[in-house]
Amino acid sequence: MQWTKQNEQTVYENRWFSVNLADVELPNGRHLDHFLIRLRPVAVATVINEANEVLLLWRHRFITDSWGWELAAGVVEDGEELAGAAARELEEETGWRPGPLRHLMSVEPSNGLTDAVHHIYWAEEGEYVGHPVDDFESDRREWVPLKLVPDLVARGEVPAANMAAALMLLHHLRLAGE
User: Fold this and answer.
1) What spatial distance separates the first Cα and last Cα of the chain, rounded to whole Å?
2) Range of the domain at 62
3) Which end of the chain is more exposed for a tag (fewer CB within 10 A), N or C?
4) pTM listed for this prediction
């Protein structure tokens, strides 16, 4: 069954997103109003070191009033390449400059409400270049053993679905067979 968008209008917008209202026709011919959020692409990155530890941020999200582990992330600026944005965000939020980035996955965290695509990258090496410029984004930054990831996810300590999926995939890719 396919829903068909008949039209869409912007209700609110700023430099990061717009809130739109769409007239959607259902397969049975009925119409409904559906709000959606149009977002810029998001670039995400982390580093896994030689000890199979992953660089994570412990941060509070005021929207859900919850704490959890995340990867460095942010919107891709106009004209910016995805991997470049991921590297920039990692350095700004952690103080670590990644080595060559590898694309891990691209996901749509909430495709029933938003068109956001999160492009997730990782590197096998990084260089500490100093205290993070955006240190206000997290309470702390830590190297966490990758083997602990499944337990962190199971306990709800990685609440963002995109971050949990990326970390579980990294766990699988790096530690499968151990």
Assistant:
1) 43
2) 40-175
3) N
4) 0.90
